């Protein structure tokens, strides 16, 4: 596992980037293919974090990439009580629900570094994308992944992860997915045991709404995440016939108290991170305020400047994020 590659601050033309081609069979061709990285399960190599892909549901093409710090793999399964297992992070990649994959290099590297820095088993979920599979399909896939972790017996998870110390985490749309996956299982957490969720970690969460916020107006033409891109992503991913004030996009507008009551009953805490250079900033702050007003325990970290999900591209920023996450999990 090398250090983060020298990736410049991304600047894209989303009119071209998301110009998808509808195929006769109902699928969509995405014109841009991001660089990908294959999993590295070979323990004879010298990489510090091993990874492997495991299929969950072949009919839906749902799979996970499991990341395991090498020192854990090189240690035989400990005798009962001989060593403490690692916490488990279930991670969801970003991409506005319409692009990207757990195999994309940017998310592979992020998860590998996170596993090493925090000392955790990371399970990164490949979920179905819109517009072929509009929301709540991705949320359903998140729930299916949790039930797979509970019952699969996959050796890296069963031998090295403490599933009673599980945290759901995501970046951008993946943070939205982590939140709504949590909401979906909150009323039936007993069905997931021995897996126990301790909290939700939302890294620059992707939310929207009809009424424009100050940061959306100020950063409408932002080179990393412009407003036209967020509008298009919601247009392609929300259920047919709804607007951006639907609960999936705007949890502050609808069912806020219901969602917070669910979180309160199970006692989860939340960590929300963001930055002022992200046009989603004001919605994220409003989301945090909504949680606090409804009695949810939440930690928030908003920094000056920067840009949307900068930690995926800047190793020093990522290191700071991982320190924050590690302290939160502790």
User: Biggest sheet: strands side by side, in what order?
Assistant: 3-4-6-5-7-8-9-10
- The amount of helix comes to 25-40%
User: Largest sheet, if any?
Assistant: 8 strands, mixed
Which class do the helix and strand fractions yield?
Answer: alpha/beta
How many β-strand stretches?
10
Unreliable segments (pLDDT under 50, ≥5 consecutive)?
A: 5-15
**Cα separation of the termini:** 25 Å
How much β-strand is present in the residues?
15-25%
Could you tell me the mean pLDDT? 91
Radius of gyration (CA) equals 19 Å
Write the element-wise H/E pattern from the N-terminal end onward: HEEEEHEHEHHEHEHHHEHEH
* Number of helical stretches of at least 4 residues: 11
Judging from the principal axes of the Cα atoms, what is the shape?
A: globular
Task: Note the main attributes of this structure.
330 residues, alpha/beta, eight-stranded mixed beta sheet, globular
In short:
This protein has 330 residues and is α/β, with parallel strands linked by helices.
């Amino acid at each position: 596992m090398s250090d983060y590659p020298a990736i410049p601050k991304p600047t894209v033309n989303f009119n071209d980037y998301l110009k998808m081609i509808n195929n006769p069979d109902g699928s969509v061709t995405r014109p841009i293919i991001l660089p990908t990285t294959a999993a590295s399960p070979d323990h004879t190599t010298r990489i510090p974090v091993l990874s492997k892909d495991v299929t969950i549901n072949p009919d839906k093409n749902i799979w996970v990439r499991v990341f395991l710090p090498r020192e854990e793999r090189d240690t035989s399964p400990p005798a009962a009580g001989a060593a403490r297992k690692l916490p488990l992070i279930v991670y969801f990649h970003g991409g506005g629900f319409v692009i990207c994959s757990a195999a994309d290099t940017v998310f592979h590297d992020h998860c590998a570094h996170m596993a090493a820095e925090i000392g955790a088993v990371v399970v990164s979920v490949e979920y179905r994308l819109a517009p072929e599979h509009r929301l709540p399909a991705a949320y359903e896939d998140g729930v299916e992944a949790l039930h797979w972790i509970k019952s699969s017996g996959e050796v890296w998870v069963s031998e090295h992860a403490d599933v009673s110390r599980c945290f759901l985490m995501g970046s951008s749309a993946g943070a939205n997915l982590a939140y709504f996956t949590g909401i979906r299982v909150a009323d039936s957490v007993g069905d997931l045991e021995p897996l126990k969720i301790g909290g939700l970690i939302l890294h620059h969460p992707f939310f929207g709404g009809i009424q424009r916020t100050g940061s959306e107006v100020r950063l409408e033409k932002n080179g990393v995440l412009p407003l036209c891109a967020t509008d298009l992503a919601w247009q392609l991913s929300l259920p047919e016939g709804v607007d951006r004030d639907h609960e999936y996009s705007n949890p502050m507008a609808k069912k806020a108290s219901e969602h917070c009551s669910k979180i309160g009953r199970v006692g989860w805490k939340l960590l929300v991170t963001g930055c002022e250079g992200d046009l989603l900033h004001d919605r994220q702050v409003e989301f945090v305020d909504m949680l606090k007003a409804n009695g949810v325990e939440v930690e928030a970290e908003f920094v000056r400047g920067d840009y949307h999900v900068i930690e995926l591209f800047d190793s020093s920023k990522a290191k700071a994020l991982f320190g924050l996450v590690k302290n939160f999990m502790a």
